[in-house]
Amino acid sequence: MHAGLVLSGLVALVAATPTVEKQLPNRAASLPAVTASGNAFWVGNERFYIRGIDYQPGGSSSDDDPLAHPDICLRDIAKFKKLGVNTIRVYMVDNTLDHDECMTALAEAGIYLVLDANTPKYSINRKDPFPSYNGAYLQNVFATIDVFQKYDNTLAFFSGNEVINEEPGTTISAPYVKAVTRDMRRYIKERKYRGIPVGYSAADVSENRMQTAHYFNCGPDDTRSDFFAFNDYSWCSSNYTVAGWDRKVANFTGYGLPIFLSEYGCNTNKRDFGEVEALMSSEMTGVYSGGLMYEYTMETNKYGIVKISSSGEVTELDEFANFRSALAKYPAPSGTAGATATTSAVDCPAQDAAWEVDPDILPAMPTTAEKYFSEGAGTGQGFAGLGSQTDWDSGVSAQNITGTSKSGPGAGSGTSEDAAGRLNLGAGAIFVTGGALAFSLFGTLLL
Protein backbone atom coordinates (compact mmCIF):
# COMPACT_ATOMS: atom_id res chain seq x y z
CA MET A 1 0.00 0.00 0.00
CA HIS A 2 0.99 3.65 -0.30
CA ALA A 3 3.10 5.54 2.21
CA GLY A 4 4.76 2.54 3.75
CA LEU A 5 1.71 0.34 4.12
CA VAL A 6 3.34 -2.49 2.21
CA LEU A 7 2.02 -5.98 2.63
CA SER A 8 4.52 -7.87 0.50
CA GLY A 9 8.14 -7.63 1.47
CA LEU A 10 7.30 -6.41 4.99
CA VAL A 11 10.40 -6.44 7.17
CA ALA A 12 8.87 -8.32 10.03
CA LEU A 13 11.93 -9.33 11.99
CA VAL A 14 14.69 -7.04 10.84
CA ALA A 15 13.39 -3.97 11.74
CA ALA A 16 -12.48 -0.03 -21.44
CA THR A 17 -17.09 2.68 -24.80
CA PRO A 18 -18.79 0.07 -22.53
CA THR A 19 -19.63 0.85 -18.97
CA VAL A 20 -19.24 -1.90 -16.41
CA GLU A 21 -22.74 -3.20 -17.02
CA LYS A 22 -22.31 -3.26 -20.81
CA GLN A 23 -18.89 -4.82 -20.69
CA LEU A 24 -19.55 -7.33 -17.91
CA PRO A 25 -23.21 -8.28 -17.61
CA ASN A 26 -24.34 -9.76 -14.32
CA ARG A 27 -24.18 -13.52 -14.10
CA ALA A 28 -25.63 -15.97 -11.64
CA ALA A 29 -22.35 -17.02 -10.04
CA SER A 30 -19.66 -16.64 -12.66
CA LEU A 31 -17.93 -14.19 -14.96
CA PRO A 32 -15.98 -14.91 -18.14
CA ALA A 33 -12.33 -15.30 -17.26
CA VAL A 34 -9.89 -12.51 -18.08
CA THR A 35 -6.75 -13.46 -19.99
CA ALA A 36 -3.50 -11.64 -20.77
CA SER A 37 -2.31 -11.58 -24.37
CA GLY A 38 -0.03 -9.17 -26.17
CA ASN A 39 0.08 -6.01 -24.08
CA ALA A 40 -3.54 -6.11 -22.90
CA PHE A 41 -6.19 -8.04 -20.99
CA TRP A 42 -9.12 -9.67 -22.75
CA VAL A 43 -12.52 -11.21 -22.10
CA GLY A 44 -12.90 -13.44 -25.11
CA ASN A 45 -12.13 -11.16 -28.07
CA GLU A 46 -13.05 -7.98 -26.19
CA ARG A 47 -10.44 -5.74 -24.61
CA PHE A 48 -10.71 -5.54 -20.81
CA TYR A 49 -9.74 -2.47 -18.82
CA ILE A 50 -9.24 -2.46 -15.09
CA ARG A 51 -11.53 0.25 -13.69
CA GLY A 52 -11.29 -0.50 -10.02
CA ILE A 53 -10.51 0.33 -6.43
CA ASP A 54 -8.17 -0.94 -3.73
CA TYR A 55 -10.02 -2.58 -0.86
CA GLN A 56 -8.69 -3.46 2.58
CA PRO A 57 -10.96 -2.18 5.39
CA GLY A 58 -8.90 -1.44 8.46
CA GLY A 59 -5.70 -1.01 6.47
CA SER A 60 -2.57 -3.12 6.60
CA SER A 61 -2.61 -3.37 10.37
CA SER A 62 -6.11 -4.84 10.61
CA ASP A 63 -4.99 -8.42 9.96
CA ASP A 64 -8.48 -9.13 8.62
CA ASP A 65 -9.91 -10.69 5.48
CA PRO A 66 -12.84 -8.72 4.01
CA LEU A 67 -13.72 -11.55 1.61
CA ALA A 68 -14.32 -14.01 4.44
CA HIS A 69 -17.08 -11.97 6.11
CA PRO A 70 -20.30 -11.80 4.04
CA ASP A 71 -21.78 -9.08 6.24
CA ILE A 72 -18.81 -6.84 5.37
CA CYS A 73 -18.34 -7.71 1.72
CA LEU A 74 -22.06 -7.61 0.82
CA ARG A 75 -22.34 -4.17 2.41
CA ASP A 76 -19.39 -2.90 0.38
CA ILE A 77 -20.27 -4.66 -2.89
CA ALA A 78 -23.44 -2.55 -2.97
CA LYS A 79 -21.19 0.53 -2.91
CA PHE A 80 -18.89 -0.92 -5.58
CA LYS A 81 -21.91 -1.38 -7.86
CA LYS A 82 -22.97 2.21 -7.21
CA LEU A 83 -19.49 3.43 -8.11
CA GLY A 84 -19.41 1.37 -11.31
CA VAL A 85 -16.09 -0.39 -10.73
CA ASN A 86 -15.32 -3.69 -12.38
CA THR A 87 -12.33 -4.76 -10.27
CA ILE A 88 -11.16 -4.63 -6.67
CA ARG A 89 -7.73 -5.31 -5.25
CA VAL A 90 -7.43 -7.05 -1.89
CA TYR A 91 -4.05 -6.96 -0.18
CA MET A 92 -4.32 -10.02 2.06
CA VAL A 93 -6.65 -12.92 2.72
CA ASP A 94 -6.78 -15.77 5.21
CA ASN A 95 -6.44 -18.88 3.06
CA THR A 96 -7.97 -21.09 5.77
CA LEU A 97 -11.38 -19.36 5.60
CA ASP A 98 -14.38 -19.69 3.25
CA HIS A 99 -14.73 -17.03 0.51
CA ASP A 100 -17.56 -18.54 -1.57
CA GLU A 101 -20.33 -16.12 -0.63
CA CYS A 102 -18.29 -12.96 -1.14
CA MET A 103 -16.67 -14.14 -4.38
CA THR A 104 -20.06 -15.21 -5.76
CA ALA A 105 -21.59 -11.87 -4.83
CA LEU A 106 -18.73 -10.06 -6.54
CA ALA A 107 -19.24 -12.16 -9.67
CA GLU A 108 -22.96 -11.44 -9.67
CA ALA A 109 -22.12 -7.74 -9.47
CA GLY A 110 -19.73 -8.04 -12.45
CA ILE A 111 -16.63 -7.46 -10.35
CA TYR A 112 -13.24 -9.15 -10.63
CA LEU A 113 -10.55 -9.61 -7.99
CA VAL A 114 -6.83 -8.86 -8.16
CA LEU A 115 -5.29 -10.54 -5.13
CA ASP A 116 -1.97 -10.20 -3.36
CA ALA A 117 -0.76 -13.72 -2.57
CA ASN A 118 1.33 -12.59 0.41
CA THR A 119 0.59 -11.61 4.00
CA PRO A 120 2.88 -9.79 6.43
CA LYS A 121 3.97 -13.10 7.99
CA TYR A 122 4.39 -14.91 4.67
CA SER A 123 6.32 -12.63 2.32
CA ILE A 124 9.79 -11.84 1.00
CA ASN A 125 11.88 -9.78 3.40
CA ARG A 126 13.32 -6.99 1.26
CA LYS A 127 16.37 -6.51 3.46
CA ASP A 128 17.19 -10.19 3.93
CA PRO A 129 15.47 -12.01 1.07
CA PHE A 130 17.46 -15.24 0.97
CA PRO A 131 16.10 -16.97 4.11
CA SER A 132 12.55 -15.68 3.51
CA TYR A 133 12.38 -17.47 0.12
CA ASN A 134 11.68 -20.92 1.54
CA GLY A 135 9.40 -23.95 1.40
CA ALA A 136 7.00 -22.75 4.09
CA TYR A 137 6.51 -19.43 2.31
CA LEU A 138 5.81 -21.08 -1.05
CA GLN A 139 3.41 -23.60 0.56
CA ASN A 140 1.29 -20.74 1.88
CA VAL A 141 1.38 -18.82 -1.41
CA PHE A 142 0.41 -21.95 -3.36
CA ALA A 143 -2.39 -22.66 -0.87
CA THR A 144 -3.82 -19.19 -1.57
CA ILE A 145 -3.75 -19.98 -5.29
CA ASP A 146 -5.60 -23.24 -4.59
CA VAL A 147 -8.35 -21.37 -2.75
CA PHE A 148 -8.92 -18.62 -5.33
CA GLN A 149 -8.24 -20.35 -8.66
CA LYS A 150 -11.72 -21.88 -8.58
CA TYR A 151 -13.37 -18.47 -8.92
CA ASP A 152 -13.70 -17.28 -12.53
CA ASN A 153 -13.62 -13.69 -11.32
CA THR A 154 -10.12 -14.07 -9.88
CA LEU A 155 -8.47 -11.85 -12.47
CA ALA A 156 -4.83 -11.98 -11.35
CA PHE A 157 -2.38 -12.57 -8.53
CA PHE A 158 0.33 -10.24 -7.30
CA SER A 159 3.57 -11.99 -6.34
CA GLY A 160 4.73 -8.96 -4.37
CA ASN A 161 3.97 -5.32 -3.59
CA GLU A 162 6.64 -2.62 -3.37
CA VAL A 163 9.27 -5.08 -2.18
CA ILE A 164 11.80 -3.03 -4.14
CA ASN A 165 11.53 0.61 -3.14
CA GLU A 166 13.57 3.78 -2.71
CA GLU A 167 15.64 2.39 0.16
CA PRO A 168 19.25 1.58 -0.75
CA GLY A 169 19.91 -2.13 -1.05
CA THR A 170 16.34 -3.29 -1.63
CA THR A 171 17.04 -4.17 -5.27
CA ILE A 172 18.76 -7.33 -3.99
CA SER A 173 15.25 -8.69 -3.32
CA ALA A 174 14.28 -8.48 -7.02
CA PRO A 175 15.54 -11.96 -8.02
CA TYR A 176 13.59 -13.56 -5.18
CA VAL A 177 10.33 -11.85 -6.14
CA LYS A 178 10.95 -12.83 -9.77
CA ALA A 179 11.54 -16.39 -8.61
CA VAL A 180 8.25 -16.36 -6.70
CA THR A 181 6.49 -15.06 -9.82
CA ARG A 182 8.04 -17.91 -11.81
CA ASP A 183 7.05 -20.46 -9.17
CA MET A 184 3.44 -19.22 -8.97
CA ARG A 185 3.06 -19.38 -12.76
CA ARG A 186 4.54 -22.88 -12.80
CA TYR A 187 2.29 -24.02 -9.96
CA ILE A 188 -0.82 -22.81 -11.83
CA LYS A 189 0.35 -24.65 -14.94
CA GLU A 190 1.39 -27.87 -13.21
CA ARG A 191 -1.87 -28.05 -11.23
CA LYS A 192 -3.73 -27.61 -14.58
CA TYR A 193 -5.60 -24.54 -13.41
CA ARG A 194 -6.77 -21.96 -15.95
CA GLY A 195 -4.08 -19.47 -16.87
CA ILE A 196 -4.57 -16.84 -14.17
CA PRO A 197 -2.07 -14.01 -14.80
CA VAL A 198 0.69 -13.44 -12.24
CA GLY A 199 2.68 -10.23 -11.93
CA TYR A 200 4.29 -7.70 -9.63
CA SER A 201 3.04 -4.43 -8.11
CA ALA A 202 5.97 -2.00 -8.03
CA ALA A 203 6.65 1.19 -6.15
CA ASP A 204 6.86 4.22 -8.44
CA VAL A 205 10.50 5.00 -7.73
CA SER A 206 12.13 7.02 -10.48
CA GLU A 207 15.58 5.62 -9.67
CA ASN A 208 14.61 2.02 -10.47
CA ARG A 209 11.12 2.05 -12.04
CA MET A 210 12.24 1.09 -15.54
CA GLN A 211 14.91 -1.35 -14.34
CA THR A 212 12.24 -3.12 -12.27
CA ALA A 213 9.79 -3.22 -15.18
CA HIS A 214 12.41 -4.54 -17.60
CA TYR A 215 13.69 -7.10 -15.11
CA PHE A 216 10.26 -8.71 -14.73
CA ASN A 217 9.88 -8.91 -18.52
CA CYS A 218 13.30 -10.18 -19.56
CA GLY A 219 14.65 -13.66 -20.12
CA PRO A 220 12.93 -16.92 -21.11
CA ASP A 221 9.13 -17.08 -21.11
CA ASP A 222 8.99 -19.26 -18.01
CA THR A 223 10.74 -16.63 -15.89
CA ARG A 224 8.85 -13.55 -17.10
CA SER A 225 5.72 -12.02 -15.55
CA ASP A 226 2.32 -12.05 -17.23
CA PHE A 227 1.89 -8.31 -16.58
CA PHE A 228 3.51 -5.40 -14.77
CA ALA A 229 1.79 -2.94 -12.43
CA PHE A 230 2.99 0.00 -10.41
CA ASN A 231 1.67 2.43 -7.81
CA ASP A 232 1.59 6.02 -9.12
CA TYR A 233 0.76 9.12 -7.06
CA SER A 234 2.27 11.73 -9.38
CA TRP A 235 -1.09 13.20 -10.54
CA CYS A 236 -1.69 15.87 -7.87
CA SER A 237 -4.27 18.43 -9.02
CA SER A 238 -2.43 18.49 -12.30
CA ASN A 239 -2.89 16.92 -15.73
CA TYR A 240 -1.49 14.28 -18.07
CA THR A 241 1.61 16.29 -18.98
CA VAL A 242 2.35 18.02 -15.67
CA ALA A 243 2.10 14.67 -13.88
CA GLY A 244 4.67 13.23 -16.28
CA TRP A 245 2.34 10.52 -17.51
CA ASP A 246 3.22 11.37 -21.12
CA ARG A 247 6.84 10.46 -20.42
CA LYS A 248 5.88 7.22 -18.71
CA VAL A 249 3.69 6.23 -21.67
CA ALA A 250 6.63 6.92 -23.97
CA ASN A 251 8.94 4.85 -21.78
CA PHE A 252 6.56 1.88 -21.71
CA THR A 253 5.62 1.96 -25.40
CA GLY A 254 6.69 -1.37 -26.89
CA TYR A 255 7.12 -2.94 -23.45
CA GLY A 256 5.32 -6.12 -24.55
CA LEU A 257 3.18 -6.96 -21.49
CA PRO A 258 -0.06 -5.56 -20.06
CA ILE A 259 0.57 -2.60 -17.77
CA PHE A 260 -1.83 -1.08 -15.27
CA LEU A 261 -1.74 1.10 -12.16
CA SER A 262 -2.10 -0.98 -9.01
CA GLU A 263 -2.62 2.21 -6.97
CA TYR A 264 -3.28 5.81 -7.99
CA GLY A 265 -4.92 8.90 -6.47
CA CYS A 266 -2.68 11.62 -5.02
CA ASN A 267 -4.51 13.18 -2.06
CA THR A 268 -2.60 16.41 -1.48
CA ASN A 269 -5.73 18.26 -2.64
CA LYS A 270 -9.39 17.34 -3.10
CA ARG A 271 -9.41 14.71 -5.81
CA ASP A 272 -11.53 14.90 -8.98
CA PHE A 273 -9.94 11.75 -10.45
CA GLY A 274 -8.90 13.21 -13.76
CA GLU A 275 -6.66 10.17 -13.99
CA VAL A 276 -9.68 8.19 -15.22
CA GLU A 277 -10.05 10.45 -18.25
CA ALA A 278 -6.37 9.98 -19.11
CA LEU A 279 -6.36 6.21 -18.54
CA MET A 280 -9.35 5.77 -20.86
CA SER A 281 -7.99 8.12 -23.55
CA SER A 282 -6.23 7.22 -26.79
CA GLU A 283 -3.07 8.75 -25.33
CA MET A 284 -2.78 5.84 -22.90
CA THR A 285 -4.89 2.84 -23.97
CA GLY A 286 -2.32 1.60 -26.46
CA VAL A 287 0.02 1.02 -23.52
CA TYR A 288 -2.01 0.94 -20.26
CA SER A 289 -4.96 -1.29 -19.31
CA GLY A 290 -6.50 0.95 -16.65
CA GLY A 291 -5.90 1.09 -12.94
CA LEU A 292 -7.05 0.78 -9.36
CA MET A 293 -7.80 3.88 -7.30
CA TYR A 294 -6.42 3.93 -3.76
CA GLU A 295 -8.59 3.38 -1.74
CA TYR A 296 -12.11 2.52 -0.58
CA THR A 297 -12.14 3.02 3.20
CA MET A 298 -10.79 6.03 5.03
CA GLU A 299 -7.80 5.01 7.11
CA THR A 300 -5.16 6.98 8.97
CA ASN A 301 -3.39 7.94 5.72
CA LYS A 302 -6.53 9.78 4.47
CA TYR A 303 -7.02 8.19 1.05
CA GLY A 304 -10.49 6.69 1.56
CA ILE A 305 -13.72 7.68 -0.16
CA VAL A 306 -16.03 6.19 2.48
CA LYS A 307 -15.93 6.26 6.26
CA ILE A 308 -17.00 3.21 8.24
CA SER A 309 -18.19 3.72 11.79
CA SER A 310 -17.46 1.40 14.69
CA SER A 311 -20.93 -0.09 14.19
CA GLY A 312 -20.23 -0.80 10.51
CA GLU A 313 -22.26 2.03 9.01
CA VAL A 314 -20.85 3.36 5.72
CA THR A 315 -20.82 7.08 5.00
CA GLU A 316 -19.98 8.23 1.48
CA LEU A 317 -17.46 11.08 1.46
CA ASP A 318 -17.32 13.80 -1.21
CA GLU A 319 -14.70 11.93 -3.22
CA PHE A 320 -17.01 8.92 -3.53
CA ALA A 321 -19.27 11.01 -5.78
CA ASN A 322 -16.24 12.39 -7.63
CA PHE A 323 -14.89 8.94 -8.43
CA ARG A 324 -18.32 7.65 -9.43
CA SER A 325 -18.75 10.65 -11.73
CA ALA A 326 -15.34 10.15 -13.34
CA LEU A 327 -16.02 6.47 -14.07
CA ALA A 328 -19.41 7.32 -15.60
CA LYS A 329 -18.08 10.25 -17.64
CA TYR A 330 -15.09 8.39 -19.05
CA PRO A 331 -16.12 4.84 -20.04
CA ALA A 332 -13.78 2.27 -21.51
CA PRO A 333 -13.23 2.66 -25.24
CA SER A 334 -14.44 0.13 -27.76
CA GLY A 335 -12.23 -2.00 -29.96
CA THR A 336 -8.62 -2.83 -29.31
CA ALA A 337 -7.71 0.83 -28.72
CA GLY A 338 -4.12 0.40 -29.89
CA ALA A 339 -3.27 -2.83 -28.09
CA THR A 340 -0.59 -5.02 -29.62
CA ALA A 341 -1.32 -8.66 -30.37
CA THR A 342 2.09 -10.08 -29.57
CA THR A 343 3.76 -10.43 -26.20
CA SER A 344 7.47 -9.70 -26.27
CA ALA A 345 10.42 -9.70 -23.90
CA VAL A 346 12.81 -6.81 -23.34
CA ASP A 347 16.50 -6.68 -22.53
CA CYS A 348 17.45 -7.19 -18.91
CA PRO A 349 18.72 -4.09 -17.08
CA ALA A 350 22.46 -3.96 -16.50
CA GLN A 351 23.85 -4.45 -13.02
CA ASP A 352 25.24 -1.30 -11.44
CA ALA A 353 25.57 0.46 -8.09
CA ALA A 354 21.88 1.40 -8.03
CA TRP A 355 20.52 -1.86 -9.53
CA GLU A 356 22.40 -4.56 -7.61
CA VAL A 357 21.10 -7.49 -9.64
CA ASP A 358 23.01 -9.84 -11.91
CA PRO A 359 20.56 -10.28 -14.82
CA ASP A 360 21.86 -13.77 -15.52
CA ILE A 361 21.24 -15.37 -12.13
CA LEU A 362 17.94 -16.43 -10.53
CA PRO A 363 17.43 -18.49 -7.34
CA ALA A 364 16.34 -22.07 -7.93
CA MET A 365 13.15 -22.99 -6.13
CA PRO A 366 13.73 -24.77 -2.79
CA THR A 367 13.59 -28.50 -3.52
CA THR A 368 11.25 -29.00 -0.57
CA ALA A 369 8.53 -27.18 -2.53
CA GLU A 370 8.72 -29.43 -5.59
CA LYS A 371 6.21 -31.89 -4.11
CA TYR A 372 3.45 -29.27 -4.18
CA PHE A 373 3.33 -29.37 -7.98
CA SER A 374 2.18 -33.00 -7.94
CA GLU A 375 0.51 -33.24 -4.54
CA GLY A 376 -0.97 -29.78 -4.13
CA ALA A 377 -0.11 -27.34 -1.37
CA GLY A 378 -2.64 -28.57 1.16
CA THR A 379 -4.09 -26.35 3.87
CA GLY A 380 -2.69 -22.85 4.12
CA GLN A 381 -1.43 -21.22 7.30
CA GLY A 382 -3.78 -18.22 7.27
CA PHE A 383 -3.30 -15.31 9.62
CA ALA A 384 -2.67 -17.58 12.62
CA GLY A 385 0.44 -19.17 11.13
CA LEU A 386 3.81 -18.72 12.78
CA GLY A 387 5.28 -17.00 9.74
CA SER A 388 7.95 -18.03 7.28
CA GLN A 389 10.53 -15.27 6.97
CA THR A 390 13.26 -17.15 8.85
CA ASP A 391 11.98 -20.71 8.46
CA TRP A 392 15.25 -22.26 7.30
CA ASP A 393 14.05 -25.74 8.29
CA SER A 394 11.38 -25.68 5.57
CA GLY A 395 14.12 -25.54 2.94
CA VAL A 396 15.85 -22.64 1.20
CA SER A 397 17.29 -22.29 -2.28
CA ALA A 398 20.46 -24.40 -2.49
CA GLN A 399 21.67 -23.10 -5.85
CA ASN A 400 20.95 -20.63 -8.60
CA ILE A 401 19.91 -21.06 -12.20
CA THR A 402 22.23 -19.25 -14.59
CA GLY A 403 21.59 -18.06 -18.11
CA THR A 404 18.20 -16.68 -17.07
CA SER A 405 18.54 -13.43 -18.99
CA LYS A 406 18.34 -15.38 -22.25
CA SER A 407 17.40 -18.74 -23.67
CA GLY A 408 20.08 -21.18 -24.70
CA PRO A 409 23.14 -22.98 -23.29
CA GLY A 410 23.99 -22.27 -19.71
CA ALA A 411 20.46 -22.07 -18.40
CA GLY A 412 19.97 -24.42 -15.52
CA SER A 413 23.55 -24.74 -14.33
CA GLY A 414 24.61 -24.06 -10.78
CA THR A 415 26.56 -21.09 -9.53
CA SER A 416 28.22 -19.97 -6.33
CA GLU A 417 26.81 -16.43 -6.43
CA ASP A 418 23.40 -15.32 -5.26
CA ALA A 419 21.05 -13.47 -7.58
CA ALA A 420 22.68 -10.17 -6.72
CA GLY A 421 26.17 -11.60 -7.22
CA ARG A 422 26.87 -11.49 -3.49
CA LEU A 423 26.22 -14.69 -1.62
CA ASN A 424 27.14 -18.34 -2.08
CA LEU A 425 23.92 -20.33 -1.92
CA GLY A 426 25.58 -23.71 -1.72
CA ALA A 427 25.26 -26.01 1.27
CA GLY A 428 28.35 -24.57 2.93
CA ALA A 429 27.03 -21.04 2.68
CA ILE A 430 23.67 -22.13 4.03
CA PHE A 431 25.42 -23.64 7.03
CA VAL A 432 27.57 -20.59 7.62
CA THR A 433 24.78 -18.07 7.09
CA GLY A 434 22.36 -20.13 9.13
CA GLY A 435 24.90 -20.40 11.91
CA ALA A 436 25.46 -16.66 11.84
CA LEU A 437 21.73 -16.10 12.11
CA ALA A 438 21.51 -18.50 15.04
CA PHE A 439 24.35 -16.75 16.88
CA SER A 440 22.73 -13.39 16.16
CA LEU A 441 19.40 -14.49 17.54
CA PHE A 442 21.10 -16.06 20.58
CA GLY A 443 22.96 -12.83 21.22
CA THR A 444 19.74 -10.89 20.98
CA LEU A 445 18.15 -13.10 23.60
CA LEU A 446 21.01 -12.37 25.98
CA LEU A 447 20.49 -8.61 25.75
From TrEMBL:
* Gene3D superfamilies cross-referenced by the UniProt entry: Glycosidases
Q: Which GO terms describe its biological process?
A: fungal-type cell wall (1->3)-beta-D-glucan biosynthetic process; fungal-type cell wall organization
Predominant location category = membrane
What's its membrane topology? Lipid-anchor; GPI-anchor
Spell out the Polar residues composition-biased ranges. Answer: 394-407
A Gene Ontology cellular component where this protein is annotated is: plasma membrane
> Region annotation Disordered: residue ranges?
394-417
Superkingdom is Eukaryota
Compartmental location: Cell membrane
Q: Kindly list the GO molecular function terms attached to this UniProt entry.
A: 1,3-beta-glucanosyltransferase activity
Q: In the Enzyme Commission scheme, what number(s) does this protein have? A: 2.4.1.-
- InterPro entries the UniProt entry points to: GH, Glucanosyltransferase
> Mind telling me which residue stretches traverse the membrane in this protein?
425-446
Keyword list (alphabetical) reads: Glycoprotein, GPI-anchor, Lipoprotein, Membrane, Signal, Transferase, Transmembrane, Transmembrane helix
Residues in a coiled coil are none
Cited Pfam families: Glyco_hydro_72 (PF03198)
* UniProt signal peptide: 1-16
* Functional description taken from the UniProt entry: Splits internally a 1,3-beta-glucan molecule and transfers the newly generated reducing end (the donor) to the non-reducing end of another 1,3-beta-glucan molecule (the acceptor) forming a 1,3-beta linkage, resulting in the elongation of 1,3-beta-glucan chains in the cell wall.
The UniProt entry's sequence similarity note says: Belongs to the glycosyl hydrolase 72 family.
Know the name of this protein? 1,3-beta-glucanosyltransferase
